[in-house]
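Q: Sequence in, structure out?
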Amino acid sequence: KYVVVGLMTLALLAVVVLVPFAAIRFFQTPVSIEPARSPPQRAVDLEQFKNYLMQQEKLRLEQEKNGGATTGNKQTSSAPAVSSLYAEHSLAIQRCSETFRQNAQLDVASSTEKELSEAREAQRANIERLAANQFLGPSWPDAMQAFVCAVLTNPVIAKLRQDKLIGSVVAPAIQFHSVAWAGIEREKADFIAKEQARVASQEMAEVARVVAAKAQAVMLLGAAGSAFLFFMLMALYLIFAKIEDNLATINRTILS
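A: Exactly. Output:
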């Protein structure tokens, strides 16, 4: 009898402990995930471009000294098809070039309007060709124009050109910016892809955790139900045992 009462006590304690714990596990919700972070902002470094120009000029002088062919940026003699795409960028860069020639105290070549127009169109065609790179993006032409004009209005660059420590500036600036900008855009794309993968992975992990918690809650509720059923069976056993004991006492009383 005392063993049965002890087992009933343990079963009741199991119900009291398991039911709240199962409820806590069952009502688990996904934890909010840190949203995808924005990629770090980077810009094309003008100081790197200055070093690039100086290295290119040293390379050109060494090639000339060794009798090698120069690697200057020369336009082909064939006239490109005229288009209005990026024409404003080409015109703005040409105006910045005129200011640069004045600051660097370079000899201003007497060019006709037709020659200036052909130069703008060749430059515009080069910008259009570079802009076709998928990694540059639609914002590259404006950023390139701002960078090139910043280079052409930089007094340090003008002084280097005046001292003949660097050569051509405009075409290398456009090329340098396109390569650097494409690298930055690739880094941004990789960063965004990694952040999206991180968020998706953490969301899936949270969903799996909640599902596992609910499954555990169901198991705990099943255990609590089994403990309660055992408690009720033991209670019925004690009741019937007591009834049987009482009936036996009555029977003995009658016989005596």
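The mean pLDDT is 85.
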